């Protein structure tokens, strides 16, 4: 048996950090059913406090939380427990934050909404065994829409500034923003 298998058998502590209460509760129930000892937090401050109190063997952390960035929780977890396995969840994915998450010790980076099976596969994937691709990945249209929404929010919802940064016409951006999110 490997060190990881020993860890999995002996320590199934899991910290879930997400500000979406419905998603957090649903994921907590699913992970308890799968044999994890789950603690939850809905802010960066609560997540860091939970890590400082009892560093978990596993963590699932949302990237964007109301009081800051979930990578702060990941950083503290990596300091306290370098062997911990963490997955970052986000509805606003980009390459730079994915690279940062991996540098901070994340084993995977999943787009929301991720189901419990996707999370388990990512947490337990080792070495050469890669997790299975998600059953329902985001469409290319959805990824584009998410990126536009993220830039729009980062520009303080300023349409002209967002259009300039995305190198698109302001009216085109306004039409995109007026539509519902693609599936």
TrEMBL record:
One Pfam family linked to the record: Response_reg
Annotated GO biological process: phosphorelay signal transduction system
Residue ranges constituting the Response regulatory domain according to the UniProt record: 13-127
Domain of life, source organism: Bacteria
Any GO MF annotation of the entry: DNA binding
CDD domains referenced in this protein's UniProt entry, alphabetically: REC_RegA-like
Record-listed 4-aspartylphosphate modification sites: 62
UniProt xrefs under SMART domains: REC (SM00448)
InterPro entries referenced in this protein's UniProt entry, alphabetically: ActR_PrrA_rreg (IPR047772), Bact_response_regulator (IPR050595), CheY-like_superfamily (IPR011006), Sig_transdc_resp-reg_receiver (IPR001789)
Keywords: DNA-binding, Phosphoprotein, Transcription, Transcription regulation, Two-component regulatory system
UniProt-recorded name of the protein: ActR/PrrA/RegA family redox response regulator transcription factor
Source organism per UniProt: Paradevosia shaoguanensis
